[in-house]
Design brief:
Layout (H helix, E strand, L loop, with lengths): L3 E9 L2 H8 L17 E9 L10 E5 L14 E4 L4 E3 L6 H4 L3 H14 L6 E5 L4 H12 L3 E6 L5 H6 L4 E4 L4 H8 L4 E6 L11 E9 L13 E4 L6 H12 L7 E6 L3 H10 L5 E5 L2
Parallel strand pairs: 6-7, 6-9, 7-8, 9-10, 10-11, 12-13
Antiparallel strand pairs: 1-2, 1-4, 1-13, 2-3, 3-5
Helix pairs in contact: 3-4
Length: 285
């Protein structure tokens, strides 16, 4: 396997990173190794192994997938990734915005695949104003689905006006009950990115699908509903598709604040504080 070394220009902060070092959410790294941070980067190919079709100087985005070994390394000046974890950067998109695609874009895309929805079917997406949920709304709409979105926002401005959701259910309403008012038979599928779990499985029609992005939010299956967990992994072809969508302006990318790498501690503090409409990104140049 011919690996690629990338000179990192931008790396997005993710709650998963904060969970790793603040709560011990993920397993400890192997003995003799240090836990790294950073799942997704944008940068330039710096060096390649023999047989690689990549060449130094190419702008790329990459997914640093080090679990369960604790070897994520995206928030650094350089990173080495396998070929299945890399894609050409979206043309016309700056590295800061491009760096927001890999982890959350792949999680959304792989979750939508698990939903198995077809054109005309209805899906409820919780956490639709967030990073994964926002991407998922856009990708589900591209499949021709009718999307009911739910989140903490009172109006769902991003989910509806930007991402294209057909209906918005604010958190002041119980999603399952609100969905049944809109569609009494229930939706064909639910993508739960907000960790509502059992509280929202009632929105699914008998025999439908329930996909969650968190293992700690798996509901008990009922009424023939298939419950699935998204376990995001590298996928160069899917990452390339996401990059092409972003280049065409068909995937909305949101950045709230940027910090230089040496101010990573301040950047994490700001992310954890919350209240941002977009991502916090570290820059290396």
């Amino acid at each position: 396997m011919s690996e690629i070394r990338i000179r990192v220009q931008a790396a997005t902060l993710n709650p998963a990173d904060a969970a790793a070092w603040s709560r011990g959410y993920f397993p400890a790294p192997l003995e003799g190794t240090a836990y790294g941070l950073g799942w997704d980067v944008a940068g330039v190919v710096d060096a390649v192994g023999p047989g690689s079709h990549w060449t130094p100087g190419q702008p790329v985005i990459a997914f640093s997938h080090g679990l369960p070994l604790g070897l994520n390394r995206g928030q650094a000046e350089y990173i080495v990734v396998p070929p299945q974890a890399i894609a050409a950067a979206p043309a016309g998109v700056d590295p800061v915005h491009a760096a927001t695609i890999p982890l959350n874009g792949l999680t959304a895309a792989q979750s939508v695949e698990l939903l198995g929805i077809q054109a005309g079917q209805t899906v409820l997406i919780t956490g639709a104003e967030g990073a994964v949920g926002g991407y998922a709304v856009q990708l589900a709409k591209r499949r021709g689905a009718v999307v009911i979105a739910s989140d903490l926002s009172p109006d769902g401005a991003f989910a509806t006006k930007v991402a294209g959701a057909d209906v918005y259910v604010p958190a002041s309403q119980t999603p399952a009950e609100a969905v049944r008012e809109v569609r009494p038979e229930g939706v064909d599928a639910v993508l739960d990115t907000a960790r509502l779990g059992q509280a929202v499985i009632g929105a699914v029609a008998d025999g439908g699908r329930f996909v969650t992005t968190r293992i700690d939010a798996l509901p008990q299956a009922e009424r023939g509903i298939r419950v699935l967990l998204t376990q995001v992994g590298p996928d160069g072809a899917m990452l390339s598709t996401l990059s092409d969508l972003a280049a065409a302006g068909d995937l909305a990318l949101r950045v709230a604040e940027t910090y230089p790498l040496q101010e990573a501690a301040q950047a994490y503090a700001r992310m954890i504080k919350g209240g941002l409409q977009g991502r916090v990104v570290l820059t290396m140049e």
